[in-house]
Amino acid sequence: MLEIYIKSIKNIFVNKSRALLTFFSIAVGVCAVIVTINIADMGHQALNNEINSLGINGISLSSVGSDAPLSVNELNEIKTLSYVRSAVPLMIETTEMYMNNDKKTICLWGIDNEADKTISLKLLNGRFFNSGDIASESRVCIIDEKLAEDSYSRVGKTIVIRSGSKNEKYKIIGIIKTGSGILQNVMGSYIPNFIYVPYSTVQNDFSETNFSQIIVDLNDQYDAEKTADSIIRYITGNLKTKTDYRINDLSKQKDDLDNIIIIFTIVLSAVGGISLIVAGINTMNIMLVNVKEKTREIGIKKALGARRKDIISEFLIIAAIISLIGCLSGILSGMVISYIISILFGLTLEFNIGIIALIIGFTVVSGTAFGIYPAIKASELDPVDALRYF
Questions:
Q1: How far apart are CA 26 and CA 37, in angstroms?
Q2: Which has more confidence, 116 or 170?
Q3: Which residue, among 332, 357, 268, 337, has the nearest Cα to 36 in the 3D structure?
Q4: Quick one: CA torsion of 232, 235, 236, 240, rounded to 10 degrees?
Q5: Is residue 205 helix, strand or coil?
Q6: What is the pLDDT of residue 201?
Q7: Mean pLDDT of 219-233
Q8: pLDDT given for residue 180 in this prediction
Q9: pLDDT digits over 275-319, tens only?
Q10: Spatial CA neighbour of 319 closest among 23, 14, 70, 101
Q11: What whole-number distance in Å separates Cα of residue 25 and Cα of residue 285?
Q12: DSSP category for residue 190
């Protein structure tokens, strides 16, 4: 058997250019699958990190009608519920900021002094809002790290924000790390920066009385989907308001997004897998040519007593080795390309040994399967006819 392996490997490289083209066709297919899976995985991680960096978990309550208020009264009622860990108001306005003769589009978030319990805000410098800032409608703000770097801002500096119909000065009291910045790296100026201010200040400057949303963080043992209706019934029953409220399960939306990404990955991987099938067909064609070229050699082997299974084994080993070498080349090139992409876009690349093993197994098995027909055809050659072949 060892002699068959050695002879098979030597036979592969008899025609080097043909061998290299065969390796290349397999490597391209494997590389496409590896890059597709890695990009999808890196994108999945990046998107999850960005969603988590916003820190919004649990459920969000919003009003869909003017008769359904969303004010401090509703907020306080929700906080009294036993299954609520914390609840914070949220006001969102898109506006502009001015600093150093530069204008930027920003997303202004109005929050309270307990928002860090529900929204993941990692303070790098300065301080967070206190109850005095909320009560006095202070014009203080917390900005994200990227904005601070881009505008050369620091704690204690003043920025100008378009608040309602006027430009107002806000003092920077803190700088936070809001996320990995993946979306900013990919989409640049299309993604607005975040600036956090007291919600009472937003209400005053933009003449708003209702919150945009109330973010509710539930205790671990409670299911968001089952709890949502009870929250609406409670606040409408206690405050005698209409039921024009909508609750979004933010965790479920994240799970739905995960499922979409998984389906997207499967579809793209299937498209890449088609190229592996094409490479397998190419391997079969090469093997058939190899059978024709070695007809006389096969005849000599059979005349000397070689059995059918010996001929079949030799050709199947050749198909398996060709597939393995092409596959390993494709994995190596796919990982290199994936690593370059991760560096360019600031993504995290993880090596999934299970996926790599699966791709190797599939490629070798499919390549060997495509070698079955040429192997059988070679084993069925008549020794007398084969010896006459020139």
A1: 17
A2: 170
A3: 268
A4: 180
A5: helix
A6: 92
A7: 75
A8: 47
A9: 778 878 878 887 787 777 777 777 777 777 777 887 788 788 888
A10: 23
A11: 12
A12: G
87 secondary structure, DSSP code: E
pLDDT tens-place string over residues 22-63:
888 889 889 988 988 888 888 777 777 666 655 555 788 887
* pTM attached to this predicted model: 0.64
Q: What are phi and psi of 135, to 5 degrees?
A: -65, -35
One DSSP character per residue, 366-383 reads HHHHHTHHHHHHHHT--H
Residue 3 burial (CB < 10 Å; 0-12/13-18/19+)?
exposed
Nearest to 166 by CA among 95, 251, 116, 89: 95
pLDDT at 168 over 70: yes
- Let me know how long the chain is: 390
Helix (H/G/I), strand (E/B), else coil: 165? coil
Separation of alpha carbons 111 and 202, rounded Å: 9
Q: What is the DSSP letter of 192?
A: P
346 class by beta-carbon count within 10 Å (0-12 exposed, 13-18 middle, 19+ buried): middle
Question: What are the tokens at 219?
Answer: 């205790």
Contact indicator for 350, 322 with CB cutoff of 8 Å? no
